[in-house]
Amino acid sequence: MRSLFLKEINAFLGSLIGYLVLALFLVAIGLIVWVFPESSVLDYGFADLESLFTYTPYVFTFLVPALSMRAIADERKMGTWELLRTSPLSLVQIILAKYFALLCLVLVALLPTLLYFFSITQLGDPVGNLDQAGFFGSWIGLIMIGAVFSAVGLFASSLTSQQVVAFVLGVFLCFILYFGLSALSDMQLGGVSYWAEEFSLSYHYINLSRGVIESTDIFFMLGMIWLFLGGSVLGLKNK
User: Fold this and answer.
1) Alpha-carbon distance 55 to 71, whole Å?
2) Burial class (CB in 10 A: 0-12, 13-18, 19+), 167
3) Which residue of 49, 76, 128, 216 pairs with 81 in a disulfide if CB–CB is 3.0 to 4.6 A?
4) Are 61 and 175 in contact (CB under 8 A)?
5) Domain spans, the chain
6) Is the bond into 126 cis (omega within 30 degrees of 0)?
7) What is the pLDDT of residues 146-200, one digit of tens each?
């Protein structure tokens, strides 16, 4: 399992596309946080990184499916999936190795954003004037969003042998889980709105961003991860 995990990491970091995807993510977030007038921290005038945590899920909706689309789809298209299944690893171990590799790549993409925390604390008046609990609660929320999206992207990749189809399906599912259910909950449809809000990723992410780590929010996201990883295993087992 460890060798497959390292193989997935090396396959991504050994290609120009991998670095290009990470670079585009960091450039997009940097422009949103520091340059674009409507979201720039410098124009906002307060020591706050709300724009980072507001817009990163939008970027994640496209970034994570782009990272995960080749995980299984490419293996099946190239004919190496059958070879992988004949290895001593079980199907669950294969899925977990690929999932943890994706999760590590998401963390690699997020780590540079910690520099924003240092920058804002230094720019604050007085120095250090920043809601640290809110920042790290939101940052943990971003990790959990990336973890759920990774499971969703892996599930989408397990359904097809075409990377483009896996990417489009992954984007669609991520969009529905984060934005679609949230929009449905705003329609005031009684019980439907209540359950749409409860199953919306954005609802639990906003709770974490307040700086209070509630076990219900963490367990919900862990449950979503388990659901989509289990769906990947069941789908591939049936095939």
Assistant:
1) 26
2) buried
3) 76
4) yes
5) 2-238
6) yes
7) 999 999 999 999 998 898 999 999 999 999 998 887 777 777 666 677 677 778 8
